[in-house]
């Protein structure tokens, strides 16, 4: 099995005609994802040319796309100024999972979009995230398809390329994944570590989890506590930003040590105290996962 | 983006919050002239992006012209938390009866603007939140409805008992929320909010951060950016759309992706080195960005080696390779470069590098270990 995205995913791409949207739509289709619709206001009626002559109908609104194609998942490549509105539009059209790739959405815009999604029971993944991929089934977002392989490990991360770094080590060692999920680097994200941990716990096929955190906030600490209280399968953790100075934003809007809170040290300590094996380097994740799987 | 106290006060004043007057001086003469115009006792306050200005000696009361001159001379040019003071705010001193704290910020857990207020002001709120959480009141504002009247009164009631003060405070809390939303702030702190001996509620100090992602909607606020408060390399990085933070080590890092960039710095440390910087070239693969990145890294004279760590996803390795080759022909790069290139289009990238005489590692550990060795040797 898999979580969030899989065989049932029917995807609508918001911003399908943009530079990033069109590039990644091709990649997602090549991976085998069922891309059933695209949305670009003003371009309704046109067709997006996919690989091997496959055409994807473009609509003016998500509402129309859902009505015509039965899309159940959306991915947002819309520019930051309009991205929160695009998320709200998808939620309003009864999309159940909105994967927001866009980086740099105003935080007050997202506060409203998250509230709207919560009220409608929709899940937002991100924003500022690489999306999710269930190897061999579906890819929604930008995680390269060639670095993953099917298997028993669930991967959750706040980062993009650092996830790839961890996943390629797993794949090279023959350790496959159920689903790899990037939850995003912003301060306000719709799906946090605990949400994804819960989904992996219910998955049935996920036998171990890799959790990759970074400085800023307390999401990792809460996840550690949840793992200790609720989870039966082993978790291996990694935290980026041990050398990050306090008070400085490290690229991601959410990666900042505020005062004395949100340091790598306190997160690693919380992991260790909850029985999560902490990898010192990304490459060490493999050995820890292998021993967890064979235990 | 952090802004100065006097700038935050301009925003608060514009939203109707009672803030005492104040003017900026960059020389002791100017400070004296401002103080003389106000008459009476004034406060001379260092304008830097740092808390703890008072403790550092950057905030002084001055009763006479000679005191104003003396304090302005001492404070201007002073260094507070690494920032050099170039401006002081001169403002009339208030007769303070009580001090309270009122702040509003984006709370990650509540996913919305959240007020934090305390009847005890002039304090380190983070410290009090740990030591005495009962004196702090919190309220999360639903972004769809905004701050409701009874909520503002609820917060004001936790600050004061006197109905006249509660009424003033509730109005200020409302105006503060309006300032927060209309300026795209991520944090505004009034500390302290005072009651004067005459019974007026006023904001006499303010701290404010604007959400970088919303600045495009507020071009006027961009004027508030103080370029003297950041290293020139960070200004250049921002203009080139790169995330860069200068650190104290000698291994210059150029990485794609914030998480991988942090992990690379950590690995430098793991192998016994010290990173010279955080630098994320971002997701796009524009060769110009790589060139800007290398210019910025080499502008730091501490850098003994440049470590490039690229895991291609959206970023294409051939574009990065072109940028590296182009940069080495266009600018004079003295430190040796070590490269790790893997992921999207890595074969093409490695070929481009090989033609220009560069080799590259495929593993992050190998390149970092080699980089640290070279920094130690250099």
Can you walk through the features of this model?
The complex is a heterodimer of chains A (295) and B (378). Chain A is an alpha/beta fold and 295 residues long. Chain A has two domains: 11-125, NAD(P)-binding Rossmann-like Domain (Rossmann fold); 143-294, Succinyl-CoA synthetase domains (Rossmann fold, 3-Layer(aba) Sandwich). Helices cover 35% and strands 22% of the residues of chain A. Chain A is built from nine helices and 14 strands. Chain A has helices at 19-31, 62-69, 80-92, 107-119, 161-172, 193-203, 219-230, 264-273, 284-294, and strands at 11-14, 35-39, 47-49, 55-59, 73-76, 97-100, 123-125, 131-134, 138-141, 150-157, 177-182, 208-214, 235-240, 277-278. In chain A, helix 3 packs parallel to helix 4 (107-119) and helix 7 (219-230) packs parallel to helix 8 (264-273). The longest helix of chain A is centred in the N-terminal third of the chain and has 13 residues, at 19-31. The mean pLDDT of chain A is 95. Chain B is α+β, with helices and mostly antiparallel strands and 378 residues long. Chain B folds into three domains: 1-20 and 95-229, ATP-grasp fold, B domain (D-amino Acid Aminotransferase, Chain A, domain 1), CATH 3.30.470; 21-93, ATP-grasp fold, A domain (Dna Ligase, domain 1, 2-Layer Sandwich); 231-377, Rossmann fold, CATH 3.40.50.261. Helices cover 38% and strands 25% of the residues of chain B. Chain B contains twelve helices and 18 strands. In chain B, strands 1, 8, 9, 10, 11, 12 and 13 form a seven-stranded antiparallel beta sheet that branches. The longest helix of chain B is centred in the middle third of the chain and has 21 residues, at 163-183. Chains A and B meet through helix 1, helix 4 and helix 5 of A and helix 8 of B.
């Amino acid at each position: 099995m898999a979580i969030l995205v899989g065989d049932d995913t029917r995807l609508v791409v918001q911003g399908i005609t943009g530079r990033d949207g069109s590039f990644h739509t091709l990649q997602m289709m090549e991976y085998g994802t069922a891309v059933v619709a695209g949305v670009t206001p003003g371009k309704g009626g046109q067709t997006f040319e996919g690989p091997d002559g496959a055409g994807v109908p473009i609509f003016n609104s998500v509402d129309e796309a859902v009505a015509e194609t039965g899309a159940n998942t959306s991915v947002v490549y819309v520019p930051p100024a309009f991205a929160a509105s695009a998320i709200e539009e998808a939620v309003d059209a009864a999309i159940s999972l909105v994967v927001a790739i866009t980086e740099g959405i105003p935080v007050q815009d997202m506060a409203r979009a998250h509230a709207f999604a919560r009220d409608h029971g929709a899940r937002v993944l991100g924003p500022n995230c690489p999306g999710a991929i269930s190897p061999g089934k579906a890819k929604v977002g930008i995680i390269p398809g060639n670095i993953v392989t099917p298997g028993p490990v669930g991967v959750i991360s706040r980062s993009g390329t650092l996830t790839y770094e961890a996943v390629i080590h797993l794949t090279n060692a023959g350790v496959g994944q159920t689903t790899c999920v990037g939850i995003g680097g912003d301060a306000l994200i719709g799906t946090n570590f605990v949400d994804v941990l819960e989904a992996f716990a219910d998955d049935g096929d996920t036998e171990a989890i890799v959790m990759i955190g970074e400085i800023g906030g307390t999401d990792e600490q809460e996840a550690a506590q949840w793992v200790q209280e609720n989870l039966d399968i082993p978790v291996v953790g990694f935290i980026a930003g041990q050398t990050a100075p306090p008070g400085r934003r490290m690229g991601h809007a959410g990666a900042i040590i505020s005062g004395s809170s949100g340091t790598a040290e306190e997160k690693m300590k919380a992991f260790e105290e909850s029985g999560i094996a902490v990898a010192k380097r990304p490459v060490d994740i493999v050995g820890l996962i292998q021993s967890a799987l064979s235990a | 983006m952090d802004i100065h106290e006097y700038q935050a006060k301009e925003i608060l004043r514009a939203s109707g919050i009672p803030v005492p007057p104040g003017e900026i001086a960059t020389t002791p003469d100017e400070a004296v002239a401002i103080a003389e115009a106000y008459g009476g006792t004034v406060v001379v306050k260092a304008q830097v992006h740092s808390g703890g200005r008072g403790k550092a000696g950057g905030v002084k009361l001055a009763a006479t012209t000679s005191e104003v001159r003396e304090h302005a001379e001492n404070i201007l040019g002073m260094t507070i938390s690494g920032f050099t003071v170039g401006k002081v705010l001169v403002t009339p001193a208030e007769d303070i009866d009580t001090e309270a704290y009122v702040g509003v910020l984006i709370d990650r857990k509540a996913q919305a603007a959240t007020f934090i207020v305390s009847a005890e002001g002039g304090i380190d709120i983070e410290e009090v939140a740990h030591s005495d959480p009962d004196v702090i009141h919190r309220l999360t504002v639903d972004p769809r409805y905004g701050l409701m009247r009874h909520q503002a009164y609820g917060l004001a009631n936790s600050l004061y008992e006197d109905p006249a003060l509660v009424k003033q405070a509730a109005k200020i809390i409302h105006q503060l929320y309006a300032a927060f939303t209309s300026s795209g702030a991520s944090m505004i702190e009034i500390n302290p909010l005072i009651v004067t001996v005459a019974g007026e509620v006023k904001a006499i100090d303010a701290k404010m951060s604007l959400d970088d992602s919303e600045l495009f909607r507020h071009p006027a606020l961009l004027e508030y950016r103080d370029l003297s408060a950041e290293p020139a390399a960070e200004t250049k990085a921002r203009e080139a759309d790169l995330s860069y933070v200068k650190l104290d080590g000698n291994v210059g890092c150029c990485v794609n992706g914030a998480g991988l960039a942090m992990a690379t710095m950590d690995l430098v440390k793991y192998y016994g080195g010290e990173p010279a910087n955080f630098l994320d070239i971002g997701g796009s693969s524009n060769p110009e960005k790589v060139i800007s990145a290398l210019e910025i890294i080499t502008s730091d004279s501490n850098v003994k080696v440049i470590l490039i760590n690229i895991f291609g996803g959206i970023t294409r390795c051939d574009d990065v390779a072109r940028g590296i080759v182009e940069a080495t022909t266009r600018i004079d790069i003295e430190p040796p470069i070590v490269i790790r290139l893997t992921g999207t289009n890595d074969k093409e990238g490695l070929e481009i590098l090989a033609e220009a005489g560069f080799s590259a590692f495929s593993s992050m550990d190998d390149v970092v270990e080699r980089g640290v060795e070279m920094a130690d040797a250099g």
